[in-house]
Amino acid sequence: MKQLFTLVLTLFISFNCFAQANLNRCGTFNAIQFREQQQPGYLARTQACFENAKQIADANKANRSGSDTVYRVQMVFHVVYNSALENIPDSVIYSQLEVLNEDYRRLNADTARTRSEFLPVAGDPHIEFVLATTDPDGNTTTGITRTPGSGSFIGYSPFADDVKKEPGGKAPWPTDRYVNVWVCNIFFGIVLGYSYPPSNAPNWDSLSLSTDSALQGVALHYAAVGRNFSQPIDQTVAGGRTLTHELGHYFGLRHIWGDSTGCNNDDGINDTPYASDASQQTCDTVINSCPDAPTDFHDMIENYMDYSDDRCVNMFTKEQIGLIHAMLQTSRAGVATVVTGTGIKNAENNFETIQLFPNPSTGTIYLNAQVKNGKNYSYEIYNAIGEKLTGENNLTSSSNHRSIYLSAQPSGIYFAKITCDEQVVVKKFQLVR
Ligand SMILES: [Zn+2]
């Protein structure tokens, strides 16, 4: 077992580490260190959880190849805002789901940029993400909540954990059933996101676990959500990969360079090469900062758990995926359902056709959805700020060409969310007066 969490705890716990000119892609390491100061023993619990999952992953290894198990993870996005800019529209969150469902199924177009030396270890994580459709009280939900924030969480602590508390922020939905993502202005926009790795290792005291549970999830800077190229943020992080990275931490993965400079630290994962440091937002395909044996590899700048530009990262390794799956079978089991052989890749085939026309429309829009195998489908129409305008349930292919009357609505962008067997397809359209 390679050495984990060997760093001097207090070294990085200062505001100075955030006060750099460049964006800080990830606050997870600092957040973990800060928690250890507040709750001594936290690091040991986290490491015990990692090692437990490693053992399970190693045991699973023999069965992993060829498995078609798909994990479906339900998410809720809590938008806690202090300005209209921070109150990001649903469309940006939908684009974030698209990014996750590409990256965690290796359906992303830039897999073509994975260098050949890493193709043998690059894998499909077999995880898909859906917005929750039922809230903790059993009511129908869009999976998105919106809360005017007090602003007190910004700068109030080194991290944004106050955004997870009321008043001022938004309390989590049960973190053992939902992946909570808080979207806010983290620390004056310097940190793009952070999350806590699983720390509910077996046989640890329940008191410490209860203090952990309300903080589990991801805090994400509002401008780092989705494919959000219009926001005033560095283009190197505009591809929605911040959440791909932070969910990696949420599922127990660590930075591939081991969070400390030099070649003696590692992430505890065997098929990621050693690297002496983060590849700071570069796409340097020449760099090889540490030797590996028996084969020496370049630094794996393609890995989502590096700090590379969103335009360079495109892969998880099979061992990283094995660890994530082990967490989904243990510490994170509650947030996922197992779908065997019918992931999003296949479920898209539920629909023969989805047409929405005319687009743009002057008031009435027609939906033609043809569904296979006599299944039912439903649709909902939302405006750009996420208000549901209308919808219908239990439709079949024979009731095609639904007429949707929107003449009372102003000009603008709208979204149709069409659902079949929990498979959601979102289409954008425009009303023009
Ligand atoms: Zn990170």
Question: What's the short version?
Answer:
The chain is an alpha/beta fold and 433 residues long. The chain has helices at 28-38, 42-64, 90-103, 206-213, 241-250, 318-329, 344-347, and strands at residues 69-81, 122-123, 127-131, 144-148, 179-184, 193-195, 218-221, 316-317, 336-340, 351-357, 364-371, 377-383, 388-395, 402-405, 412-420, 423-431.
Structure description:
It is globular, with a radius of gyration of 22 Å. It is an alpha/beta fold and 433 residues long. The protein has 2 domains: 325 residues, Collagenase (Catalytic Domain) (3-Layer(aba) Sandwich), CATH 3.40.390; 88 residues, Immunoglobulin-like (Sandwich), CATH 2.60.40.10. β15 and β16 form a beta hairpin. The relative contact order is 0.15. Helices cover 19% and strands 22% of the residues. The termini are far apart. The N terminus is likely disordered. The protein binds zinc ion. The site of zinc ion has 5 residues, from α5.
